[in-house]
Amino acid sequence: MQLSDLLEAARADAPPARYDVDHVVRAGRRLRRRRRTAWVAGVALAVAAVIGVPQWLHGPDRRSAPVVQPGPVVPSLVPFDYTFTGYRAGRFTVTDPLSLSLGWMFAKITDDGSKKPGCAVMCHLSIGLPGAPLPAGITGERITAEPINGRPAYFLADKGGIRYLIWDYADGAYAHVQAPVPLAMTKAEMRQIAEGFRPGAARAAHLGFRMTYVPADYRLTNVTTPAGSPSARFEVAEVAEARMTAPTRVPPESLRTSHATLLISVIPFHKTDGSGPTTPECTTPKIDGPSCRMFVGDGRTMVNVMTTDATTLPVAELRRTLEGITVLDQDQPGTWPRVNDAIPAAAQLTVNR
Amino acid sequence: MIVSDREAEFREFVAAQMDSLRGLAYLTCGNWQSAEDAVLTVLARLYVKWSRIDNVAGYARAAVVRAAIDETRRPWWRRERSGAHDVPEPVVPDLTGVVHDRLELRAALLKVPPRYRAVLVLRFLEGLSVQQTAAALQCPEGTVKVYTARGLETLRRVLGVELEARHAAV
């Protein structure tokens, strides 16, 4: 078998493209506009600093100007709460939710190993928060299914087979089981898992580390909370805010080219000799983006801070972020703080109440 | 008018290369939607610096592979899933088993680490030499050779077949 033939075959039958030439040109124009705006703003700031600072130092008493205080506004942090717990459904187990974003919660589905490849491939339960519509990316041939717990449901199929069972578990709140059928489970088993789902009371998600510093203009959009490998994802504020306001909780296309993210990950190492760096060590690999890492505890747990775009977040900021992280005892999740308490409030989105 | 000419050139380039770049990104990251996002990001940047790049095709290929590698560094639960679900493939009748074979093939490729996969794709699909691949991925030539050997070995092991790497080793 020729490797080139193999690769050609693997990329054959591409789905219809979501973007065309016009999309690309529009995205390019927007990017150019933003960069010019940023450049002009930078120059303006520099000029203001040169002109304004001497005046500030030597000018008239700046305390004399009355300051009008705005009226009371009570912003609340966007809560990071889970609203269901793991459960069993036949030969499958749905884990407690592992991850939480602004729109969705995710749990893994594991099986008893009686069928290969089974859920080793990819089986997930995704629960949308109320008001978060079904992601636009999930499309395909709809096959009406019997209602799940009395609510409308349907399968979604592509030519690889059934991939999703989707139902609205409450008004305006969707859920879906994702699994390859029949590789991992049957349609009946998908239904069994869906029927076993019960929404519960909100309970705060807890995080296995604390942070004291997050670069300005970054906001928390995603956490994963399993013991041993917690993580947090931050995005630039305009993208994070767009996720809250866009109908699909997906940033509008106009922001898609500025999606630099900041990822904080705690990574356990079981085979290391414990000789890794215990102070921040930063690298800018040629292939990957810049990152800073540090081993903590017994030297077998690494904390990694990385960004996808070095041009918007310098290494010094990554280092400062890493220095402000305290990894908590991963064997004592009961002692971990709520996500909202573990992350600086300034780095969290708020809603006015 | 100069701007229009540049844009016309850019449009022509995108129209000719986008499908190929999309496939390249897909083979690297294993997800059509992520692949498209990577390509859009790279092409938007290319638009901004269009007149400053000599070898735009080479630049685009290398940048797309690197962007796609970035996509693979995030496990599923660290992504914004509501915006990053797989793009389903077109629904057409299939009675031949070809699709199943292709799924297996793709599954096998996904078992090759992303950077090895990127090297294999650039060398054996895009036909780049070791030197060109090293330049594209901004890594030493020795790294490309090591990744090539390891990537091939992984694929052979996963697929259980011998693979002919037709591209001449450089």
From TrEMBL, chain A:
- Reading the lineage from the top rank, the first entry is Bacteria
Regions that span the bilayer: 38-57
Record keywords, A-Z? Membrane, Transmembrane, Transmembrane helix
Report if keyword Transmembrane helix is assigned.
Answer: yes
Record protein name field: Uncharacterized protein
From TrEMBL, chain B:
Instruction: Identify the residues that the record assigns to the RNA polymerase sigma factor 70 region 4 type domain, covering every copy.
Output: 103-155
Q: Which InterPro entries match?
A: RNA_pol_sigma-70-like, RNA_pol_sigma-70_dom, RNA_pol_sigma70_r4_t2, RNA_pol_sigma_r2, RNA_pol_sigma_r3/r4-like, WH-like_DNA-bd_sf
* Transmembrane parts of this sequence: none
* The entry's keywords: DNA-binding, Sigma factor, Transcription, Transcription regulation
Could you tell me which Gene3D superfamilies the record lists for this protein? 1.10.1740.10, Winged helix-like DNA-binding domain superfamily/Winged helix DNA-binding domain (1.10.10.10)
Q: At the top level of its lineage, which domain of life is listed? A: Bacteria
Q: Which family is it part of?
A: Belongs to the sigma-70 factor family. ECF subfamily.
Q: What is the protein's name according to its record?
A: RNA polymerase sigma24 factor
